[in-house]
């Protein structure tokens, strides 16, 4: 279904971004790995080059690009390289994110800046840069890894800055889906449960993984969305809800600790 399609995925060197990339690679898709890890990180596994090797092994074509989404010129350069290499861009996945689950007084200003820069501004600028190319595709999609906008204060009280930044990504979906209706599909995807990644290990400490699902559930849900027609737009999708609608019954396969 995605054979020959070009996906531009931010933060694809590890975790959820890489899982989505590998799922598309199995169809023979072209993957632009737009992430900032070129040298191995002391605590997080994977670089853009190790991810590229995995994508090629899975049957895809990979283009690793050093991209910090805080730097507009790096986004522009990677998009130009992608178009030059693969002839265009069909799908953008805004997956790169910064997280600090801290209260207002505990969140340092540099952390606030990081979350606003990566999550909101990075998503907005990457979308803006890719859109002229997406409009030329037969079935273009933008997919943001961001939540439904639930205004219940419980989602704000413990990590106000983080929630604002993720809802900023969701507002990009709301606005751009309407602005480009009929031209480019724009949707949001969010997990029902915590997802086990290296980043989560750093946040949650040991033992947290028993409460989590594997990144595969988001990869499968993303694949469902990205293979739908561009008329499927403006949706805020929860992974499990969509997969149940698609006929998936066994969710234990996604659990780190089944049951």
Automatic annotation (TrEMBL):
Gene Ontology cellular component terms for the protein in this record: mitochondrion; peroxisome
Alphabetical list of Pfam families matching this protein: adh_short
Entries under CDD domains matching the protein: HSDL2_SDR_c
GO molecular function: oxidoreductase activity
Keywords linked to the UniProt accession: Mitochondrion, NADP, Oxidoreductase, Peroxisome
Superkingdom in the source lineage: Eukaryota
Cellular compartment(s): Mitochondrion; Peroxisome
InterPro entries assigned to the protein according to its UniProt record, in alphabetical order: HSDL2 (IPR051935), NAD(P)-bd_dom_sf (IPR036291), SDR_fam (IPR002347)
PANTHER family in the cross-refs: HYDROXYSTEROID DEHYDROGENASE-LIKE PROTEIN 2
The family this protein is said to belong to: Belongs to the short-chain dehydrogenases/reductases (SDR) family.
Name recorded for this polypeptide: Hydroxysteroid dehydrogenase-like protein 2
Organism: Spheniscus mendiculus
């Amino acid at each position: 279904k995605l054979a020959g399609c070009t996906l531009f995925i931010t933060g694809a060197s590890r975790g959820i971004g890489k899982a989505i990339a590998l799922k598309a690679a199995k169809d023979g898709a072209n993957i632009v790995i737009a992430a900032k890890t070129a040298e191995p990180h002391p605590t997080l596994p994977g670089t853009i080059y190790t991810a590229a090797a995995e994508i090629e092994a899975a049957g895809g074509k990979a283009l690793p690009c050093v991209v910090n989404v805080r730097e507009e010129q790096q986004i522009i350069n990677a998009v130009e390289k992608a178009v030059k290499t693969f002839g265009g861009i069909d799908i953008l996945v805004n997956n790169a994110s910064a997280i600090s689950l801290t209260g207002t007084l505990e969140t340092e200003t540099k952390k606030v800046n990081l979350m606003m820069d990566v999550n909101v501004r990075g998503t907005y600028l990457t979308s803006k840069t890719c859109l002229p190319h997406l409009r030329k595709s037969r079935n273009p999609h933008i997919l943001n890894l961001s939540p439904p906008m639930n205004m219940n204060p419980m989602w704000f009280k413990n990590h106000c800055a983080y929630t604002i930044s993720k809802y900023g990504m969701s507002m990009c979906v709301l606005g751009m889906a309407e602005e480009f209706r009929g031209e480019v599909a724009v949707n949001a995807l969010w997990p029902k449960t915590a997802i086990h990644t290296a980043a989560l290990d750093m946040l949650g400490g040991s033992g947290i993984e028993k409460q989590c699902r594997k990144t595969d559930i988001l990869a499968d849900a993303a694949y469902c969305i990205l293979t739908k027609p561009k008329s499927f737009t403006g949706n805020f999708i929860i992974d499990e809800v969509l997969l149940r609608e698609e006929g998936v019954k066994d969710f234990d396969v996604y659990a780190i600790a089944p049951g």
